[in-house]
From TrEMBL:
Amino-acid biosynthesis is among the record's keywords: no
TM regions (residue ranges): 257-277, 289-315, 335-367, 379-401, 413-433
PANTHER family recorded: CYCLIC-DI-AMP PHOSPHODIESTERASE PGPH
Phylogenetic lineage: Bacteria, Pseudomonadati, Bacteroidota, Bacteroidia, Bacteroidales
Domain HD stretches: 466-609
Record protein name field: HDIG domain protein
Highest taxon of the lineage: Bacteria
Keywords: Membrane, Transmembrane, Transmembrane helix
InterPro entries: HD/PDEase_dom, HD_domain, HDIG_dom, Metal-dep_PHydrolase_7TM_extra, Metal-dep_PHydrolase_7TM_intra, PgpH_phosphodiesterase
Species assigned in the record: Porphyromonas gingivalis (strain ATCC BAA-308 / W83)
Segments forming a coiled coil: none
Length: 690
């Protein structure tokens, strides 16, 4: 089975999963706005439903109810008894006989009365006064409560001052202060927030949420009538009741069937687009899995958020999908996938038109502002443009609907700000997607093409000639890729790494040799084996350093299934009567299979051969390029690439211009002749380099 039809199974399963997690509430089919005409037919109530209070009024009533319920406190009567006992023990032990019994009786009576009144902490007293609470609910042993004025209770400081200042006239104030009554004063009133919350919750549950009822068959609104405040509230109540009705097993099944069919046909449209306009998308099955995974995750998060009301849907970064798809594929695919995703999500959101308008415009901005993700700055710019688009469209939509900007719009802009923060993390997701699906982004290619990376630094030290050759090849290949519309960054990176396998035996390659050629001591077949091995050595080294497969492909294919012709021809000439096995002199391949790998093969062969020219004349360079490219074509090494004859002709022209510039002639500086003394002549030579 072809990959495109295998991928269709993934599209089908994705539609099944999205249907499985879809919100089960019925979707209200009418769109209406306050102050606008009713655009549908006459609407009558199909069943009885309550007219719910507007949320603003309901919130105000709840706030008022909360403010009327006073805090609850409990009194611990054991504390007073313990403190009286502590006083009696201290008096009998230390003060009896030294202090008049009148003082003892006064202290005992005061402690009994003050604890009966109640001692409250200074912090609780201040907090109650700050909230203008003049009464509290005092819990009794039977869990009932009495409303008591706050003036009944004393703080520890107030109790101590009253003990001294309001004592009978016959008692000495200094003696009373010396009794250290603070040792016997403890707070016996503590707040009970649990009871307060429980009572508030019970009262809120008893609060009526409706103002009336619409009877079945009662007229709600007719065509063309203006939706006033009352009718708007009735319609909102009808919508709420309608969406909460499950409708029974049969209705749920038919509704889910409808959801599945719509989702599947939307995904089928995406599949058909890929098949018709991006057939290369189906070269690898994981491409379908990548896009469908993004659609699935975003939709599941949205559906769960709508079903459970965890957070506002505008927090969800829907634009992550076009950003990630654009990073690894093209703009049209990214936007088409985004539109399909938005249409699926729109099936479940409250304000369909507003949602689609916001997301489609933001998707257009994201795709057009980020042609290729190559830097963090580019992503930051895109996310801020998306945030600006969200905000402007949201405010414009409010002005269109209501003629004014409301508080809810400011809250939505706050949600867009959270969305922006999440979009910033798409830079990290690029790395995760690369690892999960085997992609390579322009960001990674830019990082890999830095010549200061460990592998390229090692190449420049171990095989400096090969390093210079790789740089020259990258110049040729990059310019050719630019001219014919190939992936420039991929070609540049692949060219820099294509010969890293030469580091294992650098001296066996011409560009790294000195005066001595080690091949002169080896048989031709052994030399060929060493030369050929730089491909497999390069692949092993690249895999060890975890280079992307798309870069390793340049190492595999830069010689394709070509031969080491120098050693093959020399071997055949040396043994004319011997049957030669061509495989001993043939690279393992495979042949190039893309524009980029085909360009590199030509650039590599031309740059290496150009070094052998004794004179770099225009005619000589042109003949060399024609000879090399014609030989590659005759050997069939480019048959698997999508390169056209026009592409090859353009590449040859680019190679000619670049090679000509690389080996341009230097001018010779003239000698400076000085006027010499009579009978002598002197010439001063100057040297320089252009």
């Amino acid at each position: 089975m072809k990959i495109q039809y295998k991928s269709l199974v993934f599209f089908f399963l994705t539609a099944m999963m999205l249907t499985l997690f879809a919100p089960q509430e019925l979707k209200f089919k009418y769109q209406f706005y306050r102050g606008k005409p009713w655009q549908y037919e006459l609407l009558t109530a199909p069943y009885d439903f309550l007219i719910y209070k507007p949320q603003v009024i309901l919130d105000a009533e709840r706030d008022s109810l909360r403010s009327t319920i006073k805090p609850y406190f409990t009194m611990d009567e054991t504390i007073g008894a313990k403190m009286q006992m502590a006083w009696r023990n201290d008096y009998d032990k230390n003060l009896k006989g030294r202090l008049s019994p009148v003082y003892d009786h006064y202290v005992v009576d005061f402690l009994r009365n003050i604890y009966r009144q109640g001692l409250i902490s200074n912090e609780d007293s201040k907090a109650l006064h700050a909230d203008d609470v003049m009464e509290i609910n005092l819990l009794q042993a039977d869990r009932s409560s009495n409303r008591e004025p706050l003036t009944r209770f004393y703080t520890l400081k107030e109790a101590y001052e009253m003990f001294v200042e309001e004592a009978p006239s016959g008692l000495d104030r200094e003696v009373l202060r010396g009794l250290n009554l603070t040792n016997y004063l403890r707070v016996n009133l503590t707040e009970s927030p649990e009871m307060h919350r429980q009572v508030v919750q019970e009262e809120l549950q008893n609060l009526s949420v409706s103002t009336g009822m619409i009877q079945a068959g009662e007229r709600i609104i007719g065509t063309g009538e203006i939706v006033d405040a009352y009718t708007y509230n009735v319609l909102q109540s009808f919508k709420k009741t309608y969406e909460e009705r499950s409708g029974g097993t049969t209705l749920r099944f038919t509704r889910n069937l409808g959801i599945f069919l719509i989702i599947f046909f939307l995904l089928l449209a995406l599949w058909a687009y890929m098949l018709s306009f991006r057939p290369v998308f189906f070269d690898r099955l994981h491409n379908s899995f990548f896009v469908l995974s993004l659609i699935l995750v975003i939709n599941l998060i949205t559906e769960l958020a709508i079903s459970f009301g965890w957070f506002n849907i505008y927090i969800i970064p829907f634009i992550i999908l076009p950003i990630l798809v654009r990073t690894f594929h093209d703009s049209r695919t990214a936007f088409f996938a985004h539109v399909i995703n938005v249409l699926i999500v729109a099936m479940f959101v409250p304000d369909i038109y507003e949602f689609i308008l916001l997301q489609v415009l933001a998707g257009i901005v994201s795709v057009t502002s980020m042609r290729r993700l190559t830097s963090r700055l580019q992503l930051v710019r895109t996310t801020f443009l998306v945030f600006l688009t969200y905000s402007v469209v949201q405010l414009s939509f409010s002005l269109m609907q209501d003629g004014r900007v409301e508080m809810g719009d400011g809250l939505n802009i706050l949600y867009f700000g959270v969305n922006l923060i999440f979009l910033m993390f798409s830079y990290l997701l690029v790395y995760l997607m690369e690892r999960a699906f085997g992609y390579v982004s322009n960001i990674s290619l830019v990082e890999l093409s830095d010549v200061n990376t460990p592998l390229l630094s090692q190449l420049s030290e171990v095989a400096p000639g090969t390093f210079q050759h790789s740089i020259q090849v990258s110049i040729l290949a990059t310019e050719a890729a630019t001219k014919i519309g190939a992936d420039v960054q991929l070609v540049r990176t692949g060219a820099l790494y294509h010969d890293i396998g030469k580091m294992k035996n650098p001296s066996y390659f011409t560009e790294n040799q000195g005066a001595e050629n080690p091949h002169s001591k080896l048989p031709f077949d052994e030399s060929a084996r060493i030369i050929i091995r730089h491909v497999t050595d390069g692949i092993a080294l690249a895999q060890k350093h975890r280079l992307p497969d798309s870069v390793i492909d340049f190492i595999r294919t830069h010689h394709g299934r070509g031969k080491t012709k120098y050693f093959y021809n020399s071997y055949c000439n040396q043994y004319p009567d011997k049957e030669v096995d061509p495989e001993l002199f043939t690279y393992p391949g495979p042949n190039p299979f893309s524009k980029e790998t085909g360009i590199l093969m030509m650039a590599d062969a031309i740059e290496a051969s150009s070094r052998s020219l004794s004179r770099h004349t225009e005619e000589g360079i042109k003949q060399l390029i024609d000879k090399i490219v014609d030989g590659i074509l005759q050997d069939g090494l480019l048959v698997d690439t999508p390169l056209t004859f026009k592409d090859i002709r353009v590449c040859k022209e680019v190679f000619f211009e670049k090679i000509k510039i690389m080996y341009h002639s230097r001018i010779t500086y003239p000698e400076l002749k000085k006027k010499a003394p009579e009978g002598e002549s002197t010439t001063e030579e100057t040297q320089g380099a252009v």
